[in-house]
Amino acid sequence: MKRLFLGVVLAGLSSSPAHATVGPAVLGPLPLSTESVALLADDALDDVDAALVAWDLPAARRALERAPDTPQTKVKRGVVKVYEADYAEAEALLAEVLAEDTLAEGSAALEEAQHYLGLARGAQKALAEAITITSDDGHFEAVFSSDKDALLAPYLFDAMADARERIGDIIGVVPEHTVRFEFLDKATKLALVTPLSVENIRTTGTVGVTKYRRVMMITPRTMVYGYGWLDTAVHEYVHYVLTMRTDNLAPVWLQEGLAKMLETRWRRTDPEPLAPSIAYRLHRAIEDDDLVTLSEMYPSVAMLPSAERAALAYAEVETMLGLLHERKGNEGIARLLDKVAAGEDAEAALAFAWGDDFDAFMGEWKRVTKARTASGEDGELDIPEFKDGDASPEQFGDVFSALGGGVARQHARLGALLQARDHTEAAAAQYEKARAADKRARKDPTLAKRLGRLYVELERFAEAVPLLDIAAAVEPEDANLAAAQGRARLRSGDRDGAAEALGRAVRNNPFIPTLHCDLAPLAPNEARRAAEQRLCEE
To answer: What one-character DSSP code corresponds to residue 223?
Structure first.
């Protein structure tokens, strides 16, 4: 890790007139003047700030040891405690210095104390009954605001073990300390521990934030359909190591571009293609010259005015950094990050890594990306939905408009009504009649999903497999669909296919009740098998 320290110049101090010895009776240096104390404090506290920017807590602690005991030093001690996740001690220190009323009104120290005191109190409220689990290798720890979410830990640690190695090869940083994840079960709790408002979080579908030397995430348990929480965890980890790699000098657009590009690297060797609806929006934005500018992404993509603009911003920077990596490889990324870490403007750094000026890069990116997104299709964005109330996420209504107005649609609608009333055999029969009546219906993913999941429920697994394959090709990240597909494949004897499908379910929503019953026989070792079996029986 590159470290930046603003060193305190001490050379020559011991020979200054104020420290000259006058016979054996003088036992030590005379007291420093008020001005000297202030200079020493400023230098030491600047070093604390520099160390915190780089997330180098040992350096921050060393700098604090050199700092005189001033109100500003007390503030920094409290701030360091927040970074150490010692929230109670941070609150005590910061509340004490604010109660002393020694910080000047409107001063940076006062604002800093108030900000971090709010974070310390918010974190204690958000994590009041938290439990902590540490990976066997000590590289990661997961803190859960609810013990219901502890089942996430083994899947998180498995994914992060792969991410740690693979992303380290590209970014050039592998943390030696334990990386902390905090899992929260409400949007309001995420707002308590970050600068984001609940409105920011809900408007853009923000589920993860990396700040203050930790990753803070919403558990998939509190989402209607779950969400890609493992990819999100890796996305946030990329932010974490980028902060270390560049001493926190990487701008938002560069951070988000690399995080999006690398968030699936733990499970595949190349970035996942853009969703058709995202590709469509990016294509249109390039054509209409309506891109989110890089400056608009500051201070956070989560603060953009809509989920549409946030999704567009992510797509822009992901494909920008993806093009650089595609053409220049890991070496290009390293050249870019080296320049940024040295303090160079990020656009100039990208141009250097590209080998031409920034406008030339943007011209080539637009040309390539416009061609690659030409086949995108308009559609709704897949934004994580927070649970509000106890409404069932499965809606049984007229979702078969793609079938037109003929007999197939009539049978399909009748099947949906019967399914809503738990008449599963009769519903399956109507869905089969719909498929028989129209060639389009036999390929319709919505109908295939409904019928396939019914066949799993009816334990007609062999019949379910081809139907669920049709549906999963269109919605691979639908956790409930993936769980049904995994069960159908497992019960049909396809263990490899089952493991792949169940893995998709886990990385989106491991809280599906039946999931762990099917994971148990596929577990890699006896300890994991027993754990999955316990979850199955709960």
So the answer is: B
Q: What is the pLDDT of residues 15-64, one digit of tens each?
A: 233 333 333 333 444 454 555 555 556 899 999 999 999 999 999 999 99
Residues 236 and 294 in one domain: yes
Lowest mean pLDDT across 7-16, 125-134, 169-178, 399-408: 7-16
Alpha carbons 353 and 137: distance in angstroms, whole number: 36
Q: Helices marked H in 127-228 — which ranges?
A: 153-171, 187-192, 198-204
Does 331 lie in the same domain as 226?
Answer: yes
Same domain, 50 and 156: no
pTM of the model: 0.89
d(CA 291, CA 473): 30
Residues 417 and 365 in one domain: no
Residue 521 preceded by cis peptide, ω within 30: no
Q: What angle do CA 389, 395, 398 make, to 5 degrees?
A: 145
Q: E strand or H helix at 431, and its extent?
A: helix 424-437
Q: 194: pLDDT confidence band, cut at 50, 70 and 90?
A: very high
Same domain membership, residue 160 and residue 32: no
Q: Which of 66, 90, 116 is the last residue of a domain?
A: 66
Pairwise pLDDT comparison (488 vs 385), residue with the higher score: 488
Residue 471: which domain range? 401-537
Q: What is the mean pLDDT of residues 306-328?
A: 97
Query: Would you state the structure tokens that stand for residue 311, as one six-digit string?
Result: 């999704």
Predicted pLDDT at 20: 31
Encoded tokens for 310 = 């946030």
In 229-293, alpha helices (H): 229-245, 252-262, 276-288
Structural domain count, the chain = 3
Residue 444 domain-assigned?
yes
325 and 422 housed in the same domain: no
Bridge partners for 216 per DSSP:
182, 209
Residue 406: its pLDDT value, please? 86
